[in-house]
């Protein structure tokens, strides 16, 4: 199955669905936060790093796929569909559960609360977990080991930076309340990290 043929169409449908959902979530976040007082921007470039980093990782991964470097077996594309769908479900469920507190840029609003229900009961950053799973699915869907490694490890490193920035801001804002929440939850992967 060639990812650039009719047989690979499901990959591209899921890929563009992901792009559309990401765009909607960013626009929705801006609309929900319109008019709310916001503390200073504490993002430290992490939103730009995620956006630019993901595009660069995708571009390089697509290049490896086009050049047939590190090509994976045909059946891996089917696994990619499952990973992409599961990752998107996790990511966008987490974003919906955050509601008006979701923002692509790190910063808190004056009336912000720590969401501790739903996916956030055990994982502090389930939207990043979903993003990671989706990215691995995209790399796998391109049917190249390089895509899996680049999208997976690359995005994980970017998310690790983002989490460090975000948690510093949350500890500054919530203090002991966030530290207690942090003690009983995992960053992205229950039982691992």
From TrEMBL:
Keywords: Membrane, Methyltransferase, Transferase, Transmembrane, Transmembrane helix. The keyword Transferase applies. InterPro entries: Metal_cation-efflux_comp, Phopholipid_MeTrfase. The chain crosses the membrane at residues 6-27, 47-66, 78-102, 146-163. One of its GO terms (molecular function) is methyltransferase activity. It holds the Pfam family PEMT. It is found in: Endomembrane system. GO terms for biological process: methylation. One of its GO terms (cellular component) is endomembrane system. Its main location: membrane. It is a multi-pass membrane protein. This is Protein-S-isoprenylcysteine O-methyltransferase Ste14. It comes from Alicyclobacillus tolerans. The lineage of its organism: Bacteria, Bacillati, Bacillota, Bacilli, Bacillales.
């Amino acid at each position: 199955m060639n990812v650039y043929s009719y047989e690979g169409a499901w990959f591209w449908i899921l890929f563009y669905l992901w792009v559309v959902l990401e765009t909607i979530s960013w626009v929705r976040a801006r609309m929900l936060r319109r008019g709310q007082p916001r503390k200073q921007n504490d993002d430290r470039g992490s939103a730009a790093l995620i956006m630019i980093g993901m595009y660069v990782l995708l571009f390089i991964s697509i290049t490896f796929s086009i050049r047939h470097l590190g090509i994976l077996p045909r059946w891996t594309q089917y696994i990619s569909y499952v990973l992409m769908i599961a990752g998107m479900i996790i990511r966008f469920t987490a974003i919906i559960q955050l509601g008006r507190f979701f923002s692509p840029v790190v910063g808190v609003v004056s009336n912000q609360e720590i969401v501790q229900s739903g996916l956030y009961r055990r994982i502090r950053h389930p939207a990043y977990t979903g993003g990671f799973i989706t990215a691995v699915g995209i790399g796998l869907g391109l049917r190249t080991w390089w895509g899996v490694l680049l999208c997976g490890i690359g995005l994980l490193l970017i998310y690790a930076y983002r989490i460090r920035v975000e948690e510093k801001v949350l500890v500054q804002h919530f203090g002991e309340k966030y530290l207690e929440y942090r003690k009983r939850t995992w960053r992205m992967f229950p039982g691992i990290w």
